[in-house]
Structures are given as structure tokens and as C-alpha cells.
From TrEMBL:
Belongs to the major facilitator superfamily. Proton-dependent oligopeptide transporter (POT/PTR) (TC 2.A.17) family. It comes from the Bacteria. NCBIfam families: yjdL_sub1_fam. Pfam families: PTR2. The keyword Lyase does not apply. Keywords: Cell membrane, Membrane, Transmembrane, Transmembrane helix, Transport. It is a multi-pass membrane protein. GO terms for biological process: oligopeptide transport. This is Peptide MFS transporter. Residues 66-523 form the Major facilitator superfamily (MFS) profile domain. It is found in: Cell membrane; Membrane.
Length: 531
């Protein structure tokens, strides 16, 4: 197993899934064979040979991609650690003065949008630009987004900044893995090791980003933190551009299923019309900013339903594969439930760390966003341990269903640990309690995230591997958006309501985990030889 920092950065151990078939589906399928997202495997490989210089025995393109992704994750999680505070802190404190419910809704919608755009970005790579060019332009968008947040005042900076970053990060996270996989031959034994090095770079960026941006926030203000994210992303982009021709070469340059040029204009006009419609609905007051996370969640549900129905109804899908698609539904629901709690690190836990947590550690008052570095630190420490554990257990390891149930139980217990401190005042919760809570979050993540990626590749219909992986990503998108919606029900100023919130979170996830165990035999029967 390769290590990973966060759900979007944790593909199956052998890299991203291969491209779906380009064959046209039957007349009753309602879809063509997949051109949806994401990790397209290309026939031509840019594999390093034994005669050329290597990076620790790997192609030099690995160093280039690891570097740009490390800086992108630095900027992304550095921003995540500040965002909710910037939105709801008062203007005199350097923030925008929004109410907490609106702030957490924006954060949830932003996170959910990242996963939605990863699906769209992979489609653009497969049909229009190629993975490598999509990666490059995505990195430019991310940098522009952070610059917007750093220099544009007020809510205008938030709008341009978050949209640019969400679109850029979503597309970059899928295409970078495609390009990385294309650096190796399909049977190259160095592939797993290369992905491990790549994800170590991801983890380092996720660990260091919040530390640096929070330090700058405390020293000079929010915009200095955003500026640091912009500078680091610029460094990553310059590094990638300088090394691009020499290290990437032809990797990721093939367009898997080119879109006919005559269809470019309809696609562009359709996207423009959708954007214009959303802008109009918000400017006319039909939709409100506080509803953003709910809207994002609704879009994720609709897109996920369309993908599932297309695969299920396709003539290219066999009876066994349809059975597996049915078995995937409770796994999808469990994943949504898990991520809806896990991603509250950036909503409820962010608020809690600011208002309740005793952040005085060894005589030093830590900024509240520093807690966002705890999870990636535990990932670095324990990802390899879990990988070795599953390998050692072999056929004796728990089934996919059991692992998902365990993940739900663990994160449910983590929420229960908040209850003894409900209704407390400032500095009422010891810092070690938050460390323990986020340790349990990490244990749950390691039981579900890489396991879910692996499971999805095995359950995917043979004609639709990338469409199935897109469906899995949408479970994360939906869960992340719901983390913002759920946070709107969190009221820390009323002890009874705060206690009820954590009890409900605990009861729902543990209860769902118990239902998964009860339905285990039925689900595994639907999986047909996938355990």
C-alpha cells in the first residue's frame, strides 16, 4: 500500500485505473462506453531505461511531479487551515465577518467542488487537452486562485480564489497520477515504489502547509498566509515548467478519446450557460451563499445517480457486474457518511479549535489551524503500518465490508470524545484530546480510503473502470459537501445542543457501521468473489 494524505490522493496501490473502453454501447444502454474521467493508461510509455540517469532508481519525471504536487498540497491545505477563520472572523480581526453557518457552508461547498471538478478535469484530459496539458493549466489556475485570495479584497477575492483553486486542484489531482503512471511500463516493478515516493511528497506538503500559513497569519494577517500559498504554488509551477520537456517527455500527452472539433463549441456554450445560470440565480436572490454546501451535495447526488444508471443499463455490463454495482450502493452510502464526519476537520473541528481548545503547548500558544497538520503527520507514521498489516494477514484480513464498518465505528467513537467537554468555555479541552480524536480520524481513514480505492477497481465493470472510479470520487464530494451542511447544525454556545450534535454524529455512524456488519453476507454475495 502506498501512503496517502487525504482521500483524493489515495489511488489503488498500482496507480490509477485504466481508461474505459471507447466502444459504443448498445442502443438500450443510455450511454457510450466510458469517456468520463480519469486515469487513462496510455499505450505508449515514457519508461526510464537502465541507461539513463534516474531519481533513486526512478524516472526523473517522478521528482518533477512529486515536487509540483507537494507544493500544490502545501498551498491547498495551507489555505484550508485558514479559510473558515478568514470567513467568520470580524473585519477588525482581518476577516470578512460572516456568520458561522455561512462560513462552514462555503468551506463544505468548496471541498465538495474540488472532487466534482476532478471528474470534469479528467474528462477534459481524456477528450480535449491530454492529461499533461490539463495538469499544466490546472497548476496555473491554482496559482491564480491563491494570488486572488492574497491581493483581492473582500468576498470578490474569495469567489475568484476558491473557484480557480477548486477547478485547478480537482483537475490536477487526477491528471498528475495519469502522467506519473505513464512514466512506467505497465509491468514495471518500480511503479508501486514510485507512487509511494509521490505520496510522501503529498503528505509533506499537507503537513507543512498549515504550519507555515498559520504562523504567517499570526504574524502578519490572513493575506500573508494566502500569499505564502501563492508563492509556494508558483515555485512548484516554475519547477515543473523548467523540468517539463526533459523529465516528462511524452508521458500523458495522448488524448485517449478525442472529442470531435465540431463538438467543442456546444460543450463550451453548455458550460458557459450553466455558469451563467448559477450566477443569475445567486445575484437575483433565488439561491443564497448559505445554501452552497446543500447545492453542491445535490449536484453530486445527481451526477452519481447518472453514472450508476448508465453503467447498470449498458449492454456492455454483464449480469455479474450489475450485481456488483448493486452491492456497491451500501459502500457508497458508508463512504458518504464517513467523509461527512472526516471533513468536519475544516468546519466543526476548526471552529472548536478556535473557541474551545487549550492550544497552549509547552508554553507556546498555537494558532487554531495548526491542528490541520495532525492528520497528515499520523498518515506519514501509520500508512505503511496498515499496508504491512493487510499484507501479513493476507486471506485472513477483514473483508471490504468489515473494514468500512470498522472505519465508521472508529470515527463515531472519535465524535463521542467531544461530549465530556460540551458546553465548556475557552481553553476547556486539553490539546491531547484533540490529538487523540484526530488519531482516531486517521485510523478510520486508513481503513476506508485506500481500501475503497482498491475495492472500486475490482468492482468496476470491465468496460467502465474510470467511470466507476469517478463514482467513488463523488462519494467523497458528497460527504465533503455534507460536512458543511451538517456544521450548520453545530451550536457551541448552547451546551445541550452541542452535546446532542456529537451524540447524533456518533449514533448515526456507529449505527450505520452495525448495519453494514448485519448486511455483510448480502453485500459480499452481490460482490461475487470480491471480498
Amino acid at each position: 500500500m502506498t501512503s496517502q494524505s487525504h482521500p483524493e490522493d489515495s489511488p489503488a496501490p498500482n496507480g490509477p485505473p485504466t481508461s474505459d473502453s471507447d466502444t459504443t454501447a448498445g442502443p438500450n444502454s443510455g450511454a457510450t462506453a466510458d469517456t468520463t474521467p480519469s486515469a487513462t493508461a496510455h499505450a505508449a510509455s515514457a519508461s526510464a531505461t537502465h541507461n539513463e540517469r534516474t531519481f533513486f532508481g526512478h524516472p526523473w519525471g517522478l521528482a518533477n511531479l512529486s515536487g509540483v504536487e507537494m507544493w500544490e498540497r502545501f498551498s491547498f491545505y495551507g489555505l484550508q487551515a485558514l479559510l473558515v477563520y478568514y470567513l467568520y472572523y470580524s473585519v477588525t480581526e482581518g476577516g470578512l465577518g460572516m456568520n458561522e453557518a455561512t462560513a462552514v457552508s462555503i468551506v463544505g461547498a468548496y471541498g465538495g467542488l474540488v472532487y466534482l471538478t476532478s471528474v470534469a478535469g479528467a474528462w477534459v484530459a481524456d477528450r480535449i487537452l491530454s492529461a499533461e496539458r490539463t495538469l499544466f493549466y490546472s497548476a496555473v489556475l491554482v496559482m491564480l486562485g491563491h494570488i486572488s485570495l492574497a491581493i483581492l479584497p473582500g468576498f470578490i477575492g474569495v469567489i475568484f480564489g476558491l473557484v480557480f483553486i477548486a477547478v485547478g486542484s480537482g483537475a490536477l489531482k487526477t491528471t498528475s497520477q495519469v502522467v506519473l503512471g505513464d512514466l512506467y511500463d505497465r509491468d514495471d516493478r518500480r511503479r508501486d515504489g514510485g507512487f509511494s515516493i509521490y505520496y510522501m511528497g503529498v503528505n509533506i506538503g499537507a503537513l507543512v502547509g498549515p504550519l507555515i500559513t498559520n504562523a504567517l497569519w499570526g504574524w502578519k494577517g490572513f493575506h500573508w498566509g494566502f500569499g505564502a500559498a501563492a508563492v509556494m504554488m508558483a515555485i512548484g509551477l516554475v519547477q515543473y515548467t523548467v523540468m517539463r520537456k526533459q523529465t516528462i517527455k511524452d508521458a500523458g500527452h495522448e488524448i485517449a478519446n478525442p472529442l470531435p472539433r465540431k463538438k467543442y463549441l456546444p460543450v463550451f456554450l453548455g458550460a458557459a450557460a450553466a455558469i451563467a445560470a448559477f450566477v443569475l440565480l445567486f445575484t437575483t436572490g433565488v439561491l443564497h451563499v448559505q445554501q452552497l454546501s446543500n447545492i453542491t451535495a445535490l449536484i453530486a447526488v445527481i451526477v452519481a445517480a447518472i453514472l450508476w444508471v448508465q453503467m447498470y443499463r449498458s449492454d456492455l455490463t454483464t449480469a455479474v457486474e450489475r450485481s456488483r454495482l448493486i452491492g456497491f450502493i451500501p459502500m457508497f452510502v458508508a463512504s458518504v457518511a464517513f467523509w461527512s464526519l472526516f471533513q468536519q476537520q475544516f468546519t466543526v473541528i476548526a471552529l472548536y479549535s478556535d473557541q474551545r481548545l487549550d492550544r497552549n503547548v509547552f508554553g507556546v500558544e498555537l494558532p487554531p489551524g495548526v491542528v490541520q497538520s495532525i492528520n497528515p503527520l499520523f498518515i506519514i507514521l501509520f500508512a505503511a503500518v496498515f499496508g504491512a498489516l493487510w499484507t501479513k494477514l493476507g486471506d485472513k484480513q477483514p473483508s471490504y465490508v468489515t473494514k468500512f464498518a470498522m472505519a465508521l465505528g472508529v470515527i463515531g467513537v472519535a465524535m463521542l470524545l467531544f461530549i465530556p467537554f460540551a458546553g465548556g468555555g475557552a481553553n476547556s479541552t486539553p490539546f491531547w484530546v484533540m490529538v487523540l480524536i484526530l488519531f482516531l480520524f486517521t485510523m478510520g481513514e486508513l481503513m476506508l480510503s485506500p481500501v475503497g480505492n482498491s475495492m472500486t477497481t475490482l468492482l468496476a465493470p470491465q468496460a467502465f473502470p474510470t467511470r466507476m472510479f469517478a463514482l467513488w470520487l463523488l462519494s467523497i464530494s458528497l460527504g465533503t459537501a455534507l460536512s458543511g451542511s451538517l456544521a450548520g447544525f453545530y451550536h457551541p454556545n448552547v451546551a445541550s445542543e452541542e452535546r446532542t450534535y456529537f451524540i447524533v454524529m456518533f449514533a448515526v455512524t456507529v449505527g450505520l457501521g452495525a448495519l453494514m456488519l448485519l448486511a455483510r453476507k448480502w453485500i459480499l454475495k452481490k460482490f461475487v468473489d470480491v471480498h
